[in-house]
Amino acid sequence: MASLHASNFLLSSSSSSNQIRAAISIPKLPSVRFSAPKVQQPKTQPDELNSKDGFINKIPIQNNVHSTPLVQQTSSVSTATFQLYAILEAIGDRVEMHNNIGEQRDNWNTLLLNSINMITLTATTMVGVAAVTGVGAGVSAMGLKLASSVMFSAATGMLVLMNKIQPSQLVEEQRNATRLFKQLQSQIKTLLAVGSPCQDDVNDAMEKVLALDKAYPLPLLGVMLDKFPASLEPAVWWPTKQSPNSNKTLKNKNGWTKELEMEMREVVEVIKRKDSEDYERLGNKALNMNKVLATSGPLLTGIAALGSAFMVSSNGPWAATVAAVAGALASAVNTFEHGGQVGMVFEMYRNNAGFFKHMQESIESTLEESDVEKRENGELFEMKVALQLGRSLSELRDVAKKSSYSRIEGSPMDEFASKLF
């Protein structure tokens, strides 16, 4: 009985506990799944990361955003390309220098011209006032005479210096240097854009830069170009090269034909007989005129200074007249020379003559190359020559035909090769 009562007690306790558990049981909530975005692992090179058992045993060094790329990282770029970019930077600096110095020398021309004219005209006016005042004015007339003499002497010295350096001619030199450096800059950029440069291209670019530096020097002392040569010599801004001497076997390759060669030779003859000769003739005229004006200006101011100095003697009226007339003429001569920029006109003719000489040498050196594959493409070369002369292809061929006909008939050639200048 005791065991029965115990088992009943256990059963009743277990059932009651089950009832309690059922009473306090919490219903299960539905499970919700959250999908997190996957984090993409950065792509790394095999030699940068080595993973083993899920652990990274080498940490890559992040590249600095602001650091400059190393030359060794771009193995596909040749050394010649980097050298050409360095030459481009130097050319850009030269363009800026020539442009700035050209503006400065243009200011020289304007300021010196105005200053010398003002000094000359003021001294001339003082001479006239002193002559009208006469001897009775005493100290005041003497002061005017001395002041005018000093001012004429100062104008003489300034004119000698100005005529020596020819600021207007210097300005034209800087303009041409700026234009030619920009032209070389564009050529190198084109080569870098469409071609694969080599060391020969680098050497050629270096020679062209140095030739331009020699043709248009920046300093005035020591290396300044002679402003009054014996005769006009065309400007040379390209490196001189020896033409190859060999027997040519022409074939119809690379755009070149016998007809195109004959056309280019006739164009060279027209340039020599007409364009170059005409510009050298005009340049020599401008040179002679500039020499006369550069000598007359200081001579007239010097005569005016002497005339104003002799006004204190008995020949006062005559000396005053000479001083006044010489001063007025000096002002007119100075204005015509530097205001008209005769030196700039001479420099323009000199550069134009150099342009035609460059074309002659370029065409002749191309034709003297025996291997036509080493030449520039014939059709492209013909187009460049036509554009440089301001003509179409048909007009260029007509000029070559007229030149050949005139040489056969012995008649003079009336037409120039260039329509641009």
Helix percent band:
55-70%
Shape: elongated
Which band does the percent of strand residues land in?
A: under 5%
Q: Indicate the structural class.
A: mainly alpha
Strand order of the largest sheet: 1-2
Kindly report how far apart the N and C termini lie. 142 Å
How many beta strands in the DSSP annotation? 2
| Contiguous uncertain segments of 5+ residues | 1-75, 242-251
- The H/E string reads HEEHHHHHHHHH
Number of helices: 10
Largest sheet: 2 strands, antiparallel
| pLDDT averaged over residues | 80
Any idea what the radius of gyration is?
44 Å
Fold topology:
Elements: H1 2-24, E1 51-52, E2 55-56, H2 79-133, H3 139-165, H4 167-194, H5 199-215, H6 258-309, H7 316-339, H8 342-367, H9 378-388, H10 393-409
Antiparallel strand pairs: 1-2
Which short descriptors sum up this protein?
421 residues; Probable F-box protein At4g22030; disordered N terminus; two-stranded antiparallel ribbon; 67% helix; single chain; elongated; Chloroplast_duf; mainly alpha
Plain-language structure description:
InterPro entries: Chloroplast_duf. The protein has helices at residues 2-24, 79-133, 139-165, 167-194, 199-215, 258-309, 316-339, 342-367, 378-388, 393-409; strands at residues 51-52, 55-56. The chain is mainly α. It has a domain at 79-216 and 255-409. Strands 1-2 form a two-stranded antiparallel ribbon. A hairpin with a 2-residue loop joins β1 (51-52) and β2 (55-56). α2 (79-133) runs parallel beside α5 (199-215), α4 (167-194) packs antiparallel against α5 (199-215) and α6 (258-309) packs antiparallel against α7 (316-339). The protein is elongated, with a radius of gyration of 44 Å. The N and C termini lie far apart (142 Å).
